């Protein structure tokens, strides 16, 4: 009798729901997070490599010129994205890239909040990681849309905000994933943590080298030193992109979905 009553109740509920059945609530759009992460990182990767190649091949003299007129053989990133049409390619790619970056920052914060509900320090670090991710993206937008040959002081501040936020974000992320790896012990978490640590160390080393070469170039104006600075700058930016690509393992089984909001089925 109880089974029959339960069956009748379920059938009656389906009849009452009518057009508000499960078909009505299917997602409008669904994309694996791995594809989303790859696409997000590929936008600045393709944009930057295109700008560097165009600057080096078509605008070599303009992109490698230095203030003290010493020989230089590679364009800096700031110089390459300030020329035409390179600036428009870079701005287009970063414009498309920035919105998904905000979404990824929110996804990481939601992940940390669910994982570290009862750990105050890690929750605080999760908030700081979100703040750093947002300021990193804003710094990137600022240095992108204000080029060095337009307003150098603003472009420089945007670059400083981007680099400082990126380094702090990577440091905090490595600390959080050290805790995750320690208590979960999954192979994906371990792989992601190992790559994060290596890429952060690589980024830190080449940031220091880039700073040394930049200082030495401005102080002594030796031939080829700015080329070494530009090379280190490439490694810093590409390793930063690779660090963000580790989301491939962090959200490997997740999906990005767009769906209609649930409607009230009860009157």
UniProtKB/TrEMBL annotation:
<keyword id="KW-0812">Transmembrane</keyword>
<dbReference type="InterPro" id="IPR019402">
    <property type="entry name" value="CWH43_N"/>
</dbReference>
<feature type="transmembrane region" description="Helical">
    <location>
        <begin position="199"/>
        <end position="217"/>
    </location>
</feature>
<dbReference type="GO" id="GO:0006506">
    <property type="term" value="P:GPI anchor biosynthetic process"/>
</dbReference>
<keyword id="KW-1133">Transmembrane helix</keyword>
<dbReference type="GO" id="GO:0000139">
    <property type="term" value="C:Golgi membrane"/>
</dbReference>
<feature type="transmembrane region" description="Helical">
    <location>
        <begin position="88"/>
        <end position="111"/>
    </location>
</feature>
<dbReference type="Pfam" id="PF10277">
    <property type="entry name" value="Frag1"/>
</dbReference>
<comment type="function">
    <text>Involved in the fatty acid remodeling steps of GPI-anchor maturation where the unsaturated acyl chain at sn-2 of inositol phosphate is replaced by a saturated stearoyl chain. May catalyze the second step of the fatty acid remodeling, by reacylating a lyso-GPI intermediate at sn-2 of inositol phosphate by a saturated chain. The fatty acid remodeling steps is critical for the integration of GPI-APs into lipid rafts.</text>
</comment>
<feature type="domain" description="CWH43-like N-terminal">
    <location>
        <begin position="33"/>
        <end position="253"/>
    </location>
</feature>
<comment type="similarity">
    <text>Belongs to the PGAP2 family.</text>
</comment>
<keyword id="KW-0472">Membrane</keyword>
<feature type="transmembrane region" description="Helical">
    <location>
        <begin position="123"/>
        <end position="146"/>
    </location>
</feature>
<dbReference type="InterPro" id="IPR039545">
    <property type="entry name" value="PGAP2"/>
</dbReference>
<feature type="transmembrane region" description="Helical">
    <location>
        <begin position="158"/>
        <end position="178"/>
    </location>
</feature>
<feature type="transmembrane region" description="Helical">
    <location>
        <begin position="33"/>
        <end position="58"/>
    </location>
</feature>
<protein>
    <recommendedName>
        <fullName>Acyltransferase PGAP2</fullName>
    </recommendedName>
</protein>
<keyword id="KW-0333">Golgi apparatus</keyword>
<feature type="transmembrane region" description="Helical">
    <location>
        <begin position="223"/>
        <end position="243"/>
    </location>
</feature>
<dbReference type="GO" id="GO:0005789">
    <property type="term" value="C:endoplasmic reticulum membrane"/>
</dbReference>
<keyword id="KW-0337">GPI-anchor biosynthesis</keyword>
């Amino acid at each position: 009798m109880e089974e029959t009553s339960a069956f009748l109740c379920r059938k009656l509920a389906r009849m009452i729901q009518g057009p508000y059945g499960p078909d009505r609530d299917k997602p409008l759009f669904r994309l694996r997070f791995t594809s989303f992460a790859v696409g997000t990182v590929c936008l600045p990767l393709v944009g930057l490599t295109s700008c560097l190649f165009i600057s080096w091949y078509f605008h070599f003299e303009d992109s490698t010129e230095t203030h003290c007129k010493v020989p230089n053989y590679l364009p800096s990133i700031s110089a390459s994205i300030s020329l035409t049409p390179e600036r428009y390619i870079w701005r287009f790619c970063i414009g498309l890239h920035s919105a998904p970056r905000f979404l990824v920052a929110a996804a990481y914060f939601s992940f940390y909040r669910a994982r570290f509900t009862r750990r105050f320090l890690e929750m605080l670090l999760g908030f700081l990681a979100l703040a750093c991710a947002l300021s990193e993206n804003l710094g990137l937008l600022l240095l992108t849309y204000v080029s060095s040959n337009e307003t150098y002081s603003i472009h420089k501040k945007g670059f400083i905000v981007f680099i400082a936020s990126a380094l702090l974000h990577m440091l905090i992320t490595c600390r959080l994933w050290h805790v995750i790896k320690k208590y979960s012990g999954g192979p994906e978490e371990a792989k992601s943590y190992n790559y994060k640590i290596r890429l952060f160390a690589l980024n830190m080393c080449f940031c220091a080298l880039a700073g040394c070469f930049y200082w030495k170039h401005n102080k002594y104006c030796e031939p080829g030193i700015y080329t070494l600075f530009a090379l280190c700058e490439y490694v810093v930016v590409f390793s930063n992109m690779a660090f963000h690509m580790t989301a491939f393992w962090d959200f490997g089984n997740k999906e990005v979905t767009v769906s209609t909001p649930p409607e009230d089925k009860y009157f």
